[in-house]
Amino acid sequence: MSELLPLFPLPNVVLFPNVFLPLHIFEPRYRDMVADALANDRMIGMVLLRPGWDRDYEGRPPIYSVGCSGVLTHNERLPDGRYNIVLRGMERFRIVEEDHALSYRRAVIEPLREPALDPAQRVVMLSLRAKLESMLGSRQSSAGDPRMPASMSDEDLVNALAQYLDLEPLEKQALLEKPCLRTRAEALVEVLEMKILMARTPGRSGVAH
């Protein structure tokens, strides 16, 4: 990874490791970003804009400090200069310092590597995975769901559900910031349990926090 990671801030997209994200790039500054990434190490950091971003979108609105790097696995440059790209999530990171020398944002980052699970945590993960599968349908009915094949690792499963399920961006950001797989899985179970409860309770609405 280059010393400075290009940043792509969006108001409603959170990327997780090992998950694929298709994007359509049309703003001139982000066309520059993609062109530069393709000419270098093909890495882009996805970060979430903080609430109130719309007051200064063309500038440098505040962003959350934890994001996820992605590698460009596919790219298509359209005749008018726009791009269709696909990123594969690589690693969580924390922004240390931003650089504003170019039209798009870049940052010095520190990787946030997740610790390996010890035997006790692996037992907990078995229970959490069973809860997730129970809430999202029986093992038999989900066997044909590409998001939940039995062969998918716990980490890939949790990250894929965190990205693909219909959750609020702030809920996804909170999941991304969890320090390890177990805490992310626990938080995901809690969010889904709350949403199921709210769906079953007449007159209740809102977002689980």
Order of helices and strands: EEHEEEEHHHHH
CATH superfamily of the largest domain: LON domain-like
Give the low-confidence spans. 138-147
Largest sheet properties:
5 strands, mixed, barrel
What do these coordinates show?
This protein has helices spanning 28-39, 119-135, 139-142, 154-164, 169-176, 181-200, and strands at 5-10, 20-25, 43-48, 66-77, 83-99, 106-111. The chain is α+β, with helices and mostly antiparallel strands and 209 residues long. The protein has two domains: 5-111, LON domain-like (Archaeosine Trna-guanine Transglycosylase, Chain: A, domain 4, Roll); 119-200, no CATH class. The protein has a five-stranded mixed β-barrel. A hairpin with a 5-residue loop joins strand 4 and strand 5. Helix 2 runs parallel beside helix 6 and helix 4 (154-164) packs across helix 6 (181-200). The radius of gyration is 18 Å and the shape is globular. The protein starts with a strand and ends in a 9-residue tail after the last helix. Residues 138-147 have low confidence and may be disordered.
Summarize the helices and strands and which ones pair or pack.
Elements (H helix, E strand, L loop, with lengths): L4 E6 L9 E6 L2 H12 L3 E6 L17 E12 L5 E17 L6 E6 L7 H17 L3 H4 L11 H11 L4 H8 L4 H20 L9
Parallel strand pairs: 1-3
Antiparallel strand pairs: 1-6, 2-5, 3-4, 4-5, 5-6
Helix pairs in contact: 2-6, 4-6
Structure in a nutshell:
The chain is of the alpha+beta class. The protein contains six helices and six strands; from the N terminus they run ββαββββααααα. It has helices spanning 28-39, 119-135, 139-142, 154-164, 169-176, 181-200; strands at residues 5-10, 20-25, 43-48, 66-77, 83-99, 106-111.
